[in-house]
Amino acid sequence: MHDHLTTLPTADGQQVPRGEAILPGVIRPSPTPQRLLWLDTSQGASGDMLLAALLGAGADAGSVAAVLELVAPGRLRLQRRQLRRGPFTACKVDVLADEPHPPVRHLGDVLELLEDSAIPGTTRETATLAFTLLAEAEAKVHGVTVEEVHFHEVGALDSIGDIVAVCEAVRTLGVIRATSSVTALGAGTVRTQHGVMSVPPPAVLELATGWLVDAGGPAEVGELCTPTGMALIRALCSGVTDLPPMRVDATGVGAGSRERTDRAGVLRAVLGTPLRDVHLMDEVQEIAANVDDLDPRLWPGVLETLLGAGALDAWLVPIVMKKGRPAHTLCVLAHPRDVDDLTRAMLEHTSTLGVRISPPQQRRLLRRDFRRIQVEGLDVQVKIAGDGHLIRHATIEFKDVERLAELTGWSQRIALATAQRQAQRAGLRPGEHWPEEVDHD
C-alpha cells in the first residue's frame, strides 16, 4: 500500500483503520487432525473475534485469504492489525467486501458461493453446517421454511466471509476436537434490521438451545454474542468444557469491532496437544566407571544400593582392560539432581578411583502406568507402556509373581503364565487400546 490513507471504507460507508493486508497464498493440504482447540467465549463471540483469535493461534492466513478469493473473486479482502483491549494485546481482523448494496440472500444463494471444487471439503462442510444452523434457527423463529429464510446481516458478503474464513482457519490448525467455555450472550437491547430487539435476540437463543450460556453481565451489558458467533460455536464445538488437559502449543486473542469500557471484549483460542499424545521427555546423565578388582559377589548388592539411592537404572557391561584383564563397566543413569549422591555411592561401594559423567542428555519415554488384576484373589500389578493410544508393552511385576507362587504353592513359571493369561483377558496386552483410568478386576 503506497498511499497515505489510514482507514479503509466498508460496504456501509464506515471507516476501518488500515492494517496489514493479508494476501491470498496457497491452500495447503489438510494436516492430520491431532490438536485440541478450546475457545474462551466467556466475554462473547462473533465471527471476527473467532477469526482473529484463530489467526493469532497460528492459523494459515494466506490459505484463509485464498479460500475467500474462491468464494467471491476480487470482492473480499482481509486485513489484520494489533490493538489494545483492556489488559490484552489483541488481534483484530476485518473482512472487507466490495458490495455496497448487499442483496437479500437465501440459504441456497449462500451455498452456491461455496461450490468451487478448490475449496477444501472440510471447510465447505463446516461452513455449510453453520449456515444451515442459522437458517434453521431463523426459520423456527419466523415460522417459515428454511428455503424461505432471508439472510439479512448474515447474508452480506463480509459476514459470509467471516464464517468461511473461520472454518478454513480451523482446518489449517489440524483440530481433532473443539470445545468452548460457557458462552456469554449479553443482556439489554440491540438494534437490528428488524428493529430494536431484546438481548439475546431470538435467533441466538434458538441457536443456543442445549448449550451452556449466561448473560455475562448486568442488564445494560448489551449484545455479547452475535448470531454468526453462536452458529460457528455450534458448528465447530462438540461441547462445553473447562480447559481440557493438554500441552498448550499456541494461544490467540481476538478482538471484536466494539470497544467496551466494562470488559476487554475479547475471545481467546487455546490450541494444544492432548496429553496422551505428548511424548514424555526428561533430562538424564550417565555415570560410568571401569572396575577390574572388585569381588564379583559384591556386584548384586552394589546395583541394588545404587537403585535404592535414586538411580534410574544401573547395569554392568563385561569388558577386557589392559593386559587382557577381565573387568566390568558400571553404568548408572540418573537425573542431574541425583548425580552427586550417586557418584559418592559409586566411589564408596566399589573399588574405582574415579567416574566419568556425561553431559545432560534428553531421554524420550513411552507413557507408563500400572493396572491391577486379580489372580486367585490376590492383587497383581501389570506395568503397561505405550503412546496413550495403544499398549506397546505389558509386563507382570515379578515381585507379585514371587508372592503369588509362595501363597499358592505354584512354581514361579506357572504363577507367571497364569498372571499373563489373566492380564490378556483384561485387555492388557500389546496392540490393545490404552485402558481407561480404572483398575481391571
Automatic annotation (TrEMBL):
Its EC number is 4.99.1.12. It is an enzyme of class 4 (lyase). GO terms for molecular function: lyase activity; nickel cation binding. Pfam families: Ni_insertion. It catalyses: Ni(II)-pyridinium-3,5-bisthiocarboxylate mononucleotide = pyridinium-3,5-bisthiocarboxylate mononucleotide + Ni(2+). GO terms for biological process: protein maturation. Keywords: Lyase, Nickel. Belongs to the LarC family. Involved in the biosynthesis of a nickel-pincer cofactor ((SCS)Ni(II) pincer complex). Binds Ni(2+), and functions in nickel delivery to pyridinium-3,5-bisthiocarboxylic acid mononucleotide (P2TMN), to form the mature cofactor. Is thus probably required for the activation of nickel-pincer cofactor-dependent enzymes. This is Pyridinium-3,5-bisthiocarboxylic acid mononucleotide nickel insertion protein. The gene is larC.
